[in-house]
Amino acid sequence: MKTIKEMHEKYGDIQIKATGAEMLPFDMILGFQGKLKKRSKENLMKLCERIFSIGFIAPFFLWDDNGMYRCLDGHGRIEALTAIKKAGVSLPPEFPVDYIQAANEKEAREILLSITSQYGEFDTDELQTWIDEIDDDIAETLRLVDGEILLEVEETESSEVEYTEKFQLIIELQEEIELQQLFEEMTGRGIRCKISTL
Length: 198
Prior knowledge:
Elements: H1 4-11, E1 22-24, E2 29-30, H2 41-54, E3 60-65, E4 68-73, H3 75-86, E5 95-99, H4 105-116, H5 124-132, H6 136-140, E6 148-152, H7 176-188, E7 192-196
Helix pairs in contact: 1-2, 2-3
């Protein structure tokens, strides 16, 4: 795994390749989702390399909470850019942002969940075609599995011996809306579920 310094040496400075309603300094963009998602160090480094290799390609989506710019979409990029900055690599002076209206924090949280939820799934044959047509170095930096659902089902063998056997069903989903919908469906059926990200 390359270090951030090695990525910077290979690809050069981060290029801004998106536009937004405004440009804001990175330090003005505040995280909002807390510990809702976790990223492994390996996946964080993949995201850093994607930012170096193809540039900053999508604006942050922010909620203007009375002059506090809370991020509704872009937390992974915040984490990656923070790591890049801590490694001593200079960031661009400003980043593109777009604003999403929310009446209060509750509505902003609902919007955040809605934004991070996506509709549709990859056709694996088509995805393979896309991956075959890109550079191997780039393909290695892609993260295509967004989450998994662990389902626990309790069963007993007989009335004489009571034990709890747990089974896990791991479902890899690309889009978080599918994750949320499946989670709600399963919990609605009384199945205990845990949401975990890879």
